[in-house]
Design a protein that fits this description.
Strands 3-9-10-16-13-12-11 form a 7-stranded mixed sheet, sandwiched between helices. Strands 20-19-21-22-23 form a 5-stranded mixed sheet, sandwiched between helices. The two termini are 26 Å apart. The longest helix is centred in the N-terminal third of the chain and has 20 residues, at 39-58. It has helices at residues 8-18, 39-58, 74-80, 82-85, 110-115, 156-160, 163-169, 215-232, 278-287, 314-325, 366-377, 391-401, 411-416, 437-446; strands at residues 21-23, 35-37, 63-65, 87-92, 99-101, 129-132, 135-138, 148-151, 176-185, 200-210, 240-244, 254-262, 265-274, 293-295, 301-303, 306-313, 326-330, 340-344, 355-359, 383-385, 405-409, 418-423, 429-433. The mean pLDDT is 91. The protein is α+β, with helices and mostly antiparallel strands. Helices cover 31% and strands 27% of the residues. The chain is globular. It folds into 2 domains: 8-73 and 151-322, BirA Bifunctional Protein, domain 2 (2-Layer Sandwich); 353-446, 3-Layer(aba) Sandwich (Rossmann fold). It has 14 helices and 23 strands.
Length: 451
Amino acid sequence: MEDHSTTMEKIVSLCKRRGFVFQSSEIYGGQNGAWDYGPLGIELKNNIQKAWWKEMTQLHDSIVGLDAAILMHPRVWEASGHVANFSDPLVDCKDCKSRFRADDDTQISRENVEARKCPKCGGPLTEPRSFNLMFKTSIGPAEDSSSVIYLRPETAQGIYVNYKNIAQSNRLKIPFGIAQVGKAFRNEIVTKNFIFRTCEFEQMEMQFFVKPGEDEKFFEYWRAERMNYYPKYGIRAEKLRFHHHEKLAHYAKDAYDIEFEFPMGFQELEGIHNRTDFDLTQHTKFSGKDLQYIDQDNGNERYIPYIIETSAGLTRNVLMFLCDAYEEEKVADKGNDDDWRTVLRFHPFIAPVTVAVLPLMKKDGLAELAKDIQNELKEDFMTDYDQAGAIGKRYRRQDEIGTPFCVTVDYDSKEDNTVTLRFRDSMEQVRVPRSELAARIRAEIKNYRRV
């Protein structure tokens, strides 16, 4: 019996087949831990980023944006603790050469580590050794200790070192936040599960600066805000849960993860952390600059702000939206019990293509009329045009990439200036005047509810 469940293998296959994600440098055998986003993938990723950016900046008066440089002064990473502490314990099998993170039970059990026994071949393991996750390179003409620089392993530090510049230049008063989307790099011991864990990825982070003593209130506020965000864009609430950290990072007072149920089980999607005043205190010590906030509304009171962090992986969000949207649906069509369609039920705001325009035939002026309609719609929507093959097969191609609406132009369109509007989720078709088409699509997007 054919399996119609959602698996990672199916997601990977669809992504390559339809141009969402390709293996980096594939013609050379591929580069581990790196992926290229194709035409549909970059539209999906950009739409997810725009939705997050709108949520965090446009809808919050107290949050502004930043784009900090990837290359930062090396002392930044000394202050943050990354140079000394940003490492994982690594073990290798002496026989099969497999490599494992010794602290990750999904890769190797504690019993295997303690018994020094490889879970793959039973061979002997090396002693655990520290493996720094930062990529190190050189800047300038000489390659010596004075030229060492790092590719940033997170985007947050760029926010911390700019917090006072931003507060002063934009006249911001606490509480306020700074949001950033950007690339980060980690020399992961083991990359796995497609784009879930990679060496090069993008983060969507917001650091919210608050008065000490008010941190717990804002921590709970942002925990609720971030959990309520994902269902707005069609993610099923039952696929999300909180995970409370019992073992905290050195900088954290409290921490929760929002986890999503991927095909491989519940995994971290986004972290919400109470980072206290650790980061700004460290940068004050290492830079020699006073990073205290001066509260002019309270008698010029001075203090180092506490920070509530929300940190989500953009590329991991892409995988979540793909996995949550993917469905193989049985279609009741003329008694054919073997008729199934693959559909991505993206929210229209997220979908790479919003509207596909399809002429019923390529001849008799239908193609030209369809192109005219596409040109009208592309001012407001991301569109696609497809005239190859039977109309049913074209609908299925659009279903597979998650296009919410298809517009079919037929012979009646030439006579009465109407078109057929098809809905991806229900496969319902309605007749709409061409003059009302854009307004109808906008209304359907505004009122969209996932079925």
